[in-house]
Amino acid sequence: PSLSSPADLAQARSELRRIFGFDSFRGVQEDVLARVLAGQSTLAVMPTGAGKSLTYQLPATMLEGTCVVISPLIALMHDQLRSARANGIAAATLTSVDSDWRETQDAFRRGELDLLYVAPERASQAGFRDMLSSARVGLIAVDEAHCVSEWGHDFRPDYRQLRGLLDALPHVPRLALTATADAHTRADILSQLGIPADGLVLAGFDRPNICYTITQRDNLARQITDLMASEPGPGIVYAPTRAKVEKLSEQLADATGRPVLPYHAGLDAQVRRDNQAAFVASEDMVIVATVAFGMGIDKPDVRFVAHAGIPKSIEGYYQETGRAGRDGDPARAVMLWGAGDFATARQRLSDVEQHRLAGERARLDALAGLVETPTCRRAVLLRHFGENPPVSCGNCDNCLAPPKVTDVTELARKLLSAAYRTGQSFGLGHLANVLTGSADDRVRQKGHDKLSVFGIVEGDQAALLRPLARAMQARGALVSNAHGGLELGGDARAILTGEQNVEIVLPPKKQGRGRRNGGV
Ligand code: ADP
Ligand code: ZN
């Protein structure tokens, strides 16, 4: 495949106007289209709302043959179908709720379809593969492509079967799309779907108008009441359970006199619809909700998103806070966390299937790194999404009021040395055992009790290893590999040679039984 010619892009631009009525491409859309039109397989990582659908809908109208789109959510597929048809694109779906299969198959065979949406479980069946070989396919788009990766937050076994279909059509370019993929997941998607590493197109994830604040909970209702006092516009408060949603919405309504409504899956469907509609129409309402709220809601003037507990992951946090300030005006994201949140989340890890454990643990560690960092929140977020941001943004709590930090460079060097000398393939548990001189079976069996780093960390310092390791991961100096082993990366070398310092915010001292005072 060669580069797409300028003529292709000029034609794409005129089709953009003619079919969609848009004047110009947004962000990386043009880069993605250039590759797709040139027949090059691509992984596009673009945040929600960046306009992923256009990157296959437009080629679908230009390329010879049908564009097959694999998409995991039937409801979303039917939304897409409606909007594609409204734009005059010949589109159809093949799902368990469709009854017009025969017509769809005939239309495909006659080459009349621009777009064919299909669910992953259907796409991997032999019958579907046979059907595809009966007419020309111009492009295979895999939506929500992170579902193919066990590292992703939403692994679906059906996605694993797609490779057979893709390989049966070796000359058809592939376009994988996702809004959320950290470095591991991205690499995994590329290899699972057979897309070359240089086929990655990454959109900018920065939302400069959102000011991030992450702070400990002490009095939740009062903290959110204060936030509401400073932000009179619409807001969303995410709470972890239905009971907390109910309680908090009453407390906030009482304390502020502002319109406050609850939203969670336990409410009657009609009540949910009414509350959502009221929120969308309002200029000062606050909705207290579980994460069930927000998908597909179009409200550009949300002024704040608060989390009354930790989100599930950095991906989730980015997506939920991303609902603030879509109009580009200043907006706030405030997370109120408690150490108990992390304790609960870590307990839940014991229920996770073995093959997903490393991924889940890495996700939680990444989140803890964001919560604990004394450095720029935005920088940690953007690095997580593979960007290379400036060290400071001037629009987050840590940039606006730098926290009191302690220099732990010496301890950081010891940790890096231990990771290095044990072959960069062990997790923190093992490294901590080596460093603190606890010669358990594994340490002895590997001969790590003979290393110079054995037992060089003592007393108080041992308790700092875990927060330090997370800080090192947050800045990229330690990177956890696919098996949970910690490898050196980023500025690890500069830390070892003394060119870079490492500072962390000291965790609060444990006081007797107080779980709130525990570590993250
Ligand atoms: P995503 O799937 O990435 O979340 P969508 O494909 O749903 O995003 O697009 C989000 C919105 O942006 C849609 O309303 C779409 O019509 C609009 N959009 C996409 N591309 C453009 C463009 N080039 N110019 C203007 N609006 C666009
Ligand atoms: Zn910042």
TrEMBL record:
InterPro entries: DEAD/DEAH_box_helicase_dom (IPR011545), DNA_helicase_ATP-dep_RecQ (IPR004589), DNA_helicase_ATP-dep_RecQ_bac (IPR006293), Helicase_ATP-bd (IPR014001), Helicase_C-like (IPR001650), HRDC-like_sf (IPR010997), HRDC_dom (IPR002121), HRDC_dom_sf (IPR044876). Its EC number is 5.6.2.4. Transmembrane segments: none annotated. Keywords: ATP-binding, DNA damage, DNA recombination, DNA repair, DNA-binding, Helicase, Hydrolase, Isomerase, Metal-binding, Nucleotide-binding, Zinc. Residues 223-368 form the Helicase C-terminal domain. GO terms for biological process: DNA recombination; DNA repair; DNA replication; SOS response. Its cofactor is Mg(2+); Zn(2+). PANTHER family: ATP-DEPENDENT DNA HELICASE Q1 (PTHR13710:SF105), DNA HELICASE RECQ FAMILY MEMBER (PTHR13710). Belongs to the helicase family. RecQ subfamily. This is DNA helicase RecQ.
